[in-house]
Amino acid sequence: MILRFCLFLMLTLFSLQAVSGEEQAERVSTHSFKVNDFVLSNQYKKNMPQSFPKEIISIFALADRKGSDQLEDWITPFYKRYGERVDICGVANMKGLPKMLRPMLRGIFKKSIEYPVMMDWTGATCEAFKYTAGVADIFIVDRNGLVVHRIRGEANEQKLKDCYAVIDRLIKEKDAEAAAEENAQSQGKDPQAPESTSDAPMQES
Length: 205
Fold this sequence. Notes:
There is one protein chain. The chain has five helices and seven strands. The chain is of the alpha/beta class. It has one domain: Glutaredoxin. Strands 5-4-3-6-7 form a five-stranded mixed sheet. The protein has a two-stranded antiparallel ribbon with strand order 1-2. A hairpin with a 5-residue loop joins strand 1 and strand 2. The longest helix is centred in the last third of the chain and has 30 residues, at 157-186. The radius of gyration is 20 Å and the shape is globular.
């Protein structure tokens, strides 16, 4: 009886979180912002610190209970296309759930999801991302922590193609930088040294 009540309460709270975001499901943010370092634990109680700069590009997939239904159609294609070349980070918005339900929720995640998912019990991390409730919210983040692309809602072919274009560009830029550093090191040069002594200001793109 108590278990049924807890499950009912959990689903009710998640549903209330989801309502406010439904109307914004298809909007795409073009405003970049910096992701600050943070640490959350996953369903196995293991801390998963996120700090920048990173060696690879990150994809942060945020969702509450309702939005989680959309995640698989995002994450599976990303894994198939990029494998370990990107860091795919799932974050579950658990704000509003009583502490007594946390062990049960962790157990549900362990049984239903193989990959680690960060549990945002307070909702602070999701709020920092300005997460939209009720949908999957996908953030593509470069190695320095800058959000360069954001898309929400259900995945489709065009949305995935847009994400691929951004991720492919970032990977290509990273590979080019690595090749330049390797070439400079092989020639005994400092890869961080400027190539020009000009005092002209850098132009913004």
